[in-house]
Specification:
Number of helices: 17
Radius of gyration: 21 Å
Shape: globular
Length: 376
Amino acid sequence: MQIVRKVLLLGMVLLGVARVDAGQGAGSADNLPAYYPQDYGQIIEASKGEDGLLIYGNIAEYNWRYIIQGFKEKYPWVENVQSLDLGPSTSFERYYAESSIDKASADMMAVASPEGFHRFKTKDGLQPYTSPEQPYLPEWSYDGNGIYTISTDPMVIIYNKLAMPEDDWPDSLEDIAELAEEKQGFYRDRVTTYDATSHSFAYDIHWTVGQRNGDKAASLFNHLGSITRAESGAATMVEKVTSGEYLAGYFVSGIGVFPRMADAGRDKILGWSLIEDGTPVFIRSIGLTKNGANPNTARLFLDYVLSHEGQVAVGKGGLTPYRPDVGRDEVPYASYRSLVEDLGEDRIILVDYQPESSEQRDDFLAEWRKAFRIKN
């Protein structure tokens, strides 16, 4: 599986040299890209009779801003696009509850939860759909049943450049483990990461990194855990590292870091780095639902998100676009292509659905709690 994935990733990067302007001018049937099906205009016309769009997920308003803005410019009759930032579990459970009483629910799900999306598919909540943009996407980014990828977000290291000695500024987990070994007294409880027991997003990151590190995982987590105090969200970690309450953090979601680096003066205090010995890259999924009230508008939105234009908008909002034809100079932060160029594909750890992660949850979290000094 890893060999196949590496081949696909390399092919994606090579393919990225040739950019395809997908989705341009799709606001009317007369201006569809040549590769869109002839009957796509019917979806456009049907959308004009719908009431907008409702999305459940765990993407913040500022991450959606440029995507929704670009979509409304392309389809100006869609005036009401609402995205509720509910969190992974709540998004799915709310949909299940509403659907159980035949109440119209979200038109789309956009959630960072590989296991949750897999369960959503098996529980018949997902509306199968083949996007006309699919041929221009890497094969690992869709499952063939309607689950697509909206972004591939790196988990990074952050640190306080003023409070932390420059010689200690980390760019790998090994660097942080060495700080725990050599300077535990200074760094104890002044380093942070996600609490793997708090939600599936955090668990998936730690479990996947543990799998990648194999026999070294227990030792690595014991060292990291000895100086780490866990938090539940990226925003909290960024603010507490900026204030100096924490000196550093790791596995911090890039979507919580990159946009905040534009805040006045923050770059003088906060430093960040990709994780040189393996950067987890979380696959954030998106798909249509079977019980939404606006199925045609949802199709238009999904195709826009997957298009070149939409992926550039994804990048402008702080998410990480993954289409091979999105160039480094088109987005203000990272793209999947730039991650591969900067790190090499062998140092990218894709966090996606793995059946055994669910099977191993209890045992893994029991060991994780010991390493990270979590009593409950």
